[in-house]
Design brief:
Elements: H1 13-23, H2 31-51, E1 58-64, E2 71-73, E3 78-80, E4 92-95, E5 101-103, E6 112-114, E7 127-130, E8 136-138, H3 146-149, E9 151-161, E10 164-167, E11 169-170, H4 173-177, E12 185-186, E13 190-194, E14 200-204, E15 206-207, E16 213-220, H5 239-254, H6 259-276
Parallel strand pairs: 11-13, 12-15
Antiparallel strand pairs: 1-16, 2-14, 3-6, 4-5, 4-7, 7-8, 9-10, 9-16, 13-14
Amino acid sequence: MAISGSKDFEPNVAEYIEEAFERCGLELRTGYDARTARRSLNLMLADWANRGLNRWTMKRVTQTFAEDISEYPVGTITLSVSASGSFTIGETITGGTSGATASVITKPLSTSVTITVPSGTFTSGETITGGTSGATTTTTSAASLEDTQATIDILSGVVRRDSSDISITRVSRDEYLAIATKSTTGRPTQFYVNRQITPVVTVWPVPENSTDQFIYDRLVRIDDADASVNSMEIPFRFYPCLAAGLAYYISLKRAPERIQVLKVLYEEEFLRAAEEDRDKANITLVPSYSSLSAVS
């Protein structure tokens, strides 16, 4: 018999739910069955983020530093405006109605400006004023925090200057707090990730120019299962893990007699997927002869 010649098998949310119900010895019958299963699926994806599984959602970010600004959103926050050409990098902008403030962190485009995490909430249609330039413009939409809030963590990063990349070290909250003079300027060599609901990264020393770049890999959350017709944002090798996990989650509510066997199967599938989803690189071991003494 001829082979299919296709490699496009990709279950949608409804098919995962049907598979999970069948593993629980149940049938999908009502709209509520589908809704409660989608909720369980989204909760499971949150647990995958805690386990660090979704490495295929890594995104590389290039953030140009702004002189004298040390704190940046982990991601991009863009404020849409009617015109922004007169604003300057590093200056504070203030909303005339909301009173919200933020700093400009990259060269403004004609109708948008990239900002730090705002203090307060800019509203659509209000006038904003630059603290240094005195320029004014009107916002055309509120700044969205969605991209930054989708961040799980930063994995690694470098600082690029004159086309050369130099490693930058991650420090803990306590290590950053222990830095005696946080206002020291220079080329950043350390960063601290403050994992708030809207995560921010703080670099030290404070950037001394507006040309160096912070290039980092961030891990972001998997897209939600909002509708049964949605596809899932996972590679094919994780299909068995997702189906097994959803069956286990549903069994907690609908098939308690199958909890144990489905949990074991899920953990086995998860372990296989997690062990495969890792960096693979050659390793070279070089023996050390420093401890060997000459034999007479």
